[in-house]
Amino acid sequence: MMDGHLVGYGLMTAASITPDAHMQGVALAPLAVAPEYQGGGIGVAIVTELDMRATDLRRDFVSVVGDRQFFGRLGFQKAAKYKLDPPFPVVTEDHLIKELVPGVLASVRGKVNYPAPFLTQVAN
């Protein structure tokens, strides 16, 4: 909030990896900052806060489909590096993941799963 106006927001929801169902992570989506406030650190502050909250909830990872340059600065890496498939068809390089527990993804392989609403196509 700035001057009583919402200028940015982010949401994390539960995510998992199959067949390694013991992994508990979160999906970061959506993340938005009003255009006139972009570039001022608000997006970074939102992601940093959400990462801390996910860590406090003992989540293992954060998954996002987004801008590689922006999220790369925040410690996200290509999910393909860990041999993790995206939850839905996307450009492979845009599916990014961040370990919240160092090394937790080292031996994990599979598919990152998002909640059903992320998988539903909206009719035009």
Walk me through the structure:
GO terms for molecular function: acyltransferase activity, transferring groups other than amino-acyl groups. Residues 1-98 form the N-acetyltransferase domain. Pfam families: Acetyltransf_7. This protein is an alpha/beta fold and 124 residues long. It has one domain (8-101): Aminopeptidase (3-Layer(aba) Sandwich). The protein contains 2 helices and 7 strands; from the N terminus they run ββαβαββββ. The chain has a 7-stranded mixed beta sheet. 27% of the residues are buried.
Helix content: 10-25%
- Structural class label: alpha/beta
**String of helices and strands:** EEHEHEEEE
User: Any idea of the CATH class?
Assistant: Alpha Beta
Q: How many β strands by DSSP? A: 7
Largest sheet, in brief, is: 7 strands, mixed
Gyration radius from CA atoms, angstroms:
15 Å
Strand order of the largest sheet: 4-6-3-2-1-7-5
Do you know the CATH architecture?
3-Layer(aba) Sandwich
| Contiguous uncertain segments of 5+ residues | none
- Rounded mean pLDDT is 92
Termini separation:
32 Å
| Strand content range | 25-35%
Shape: globular
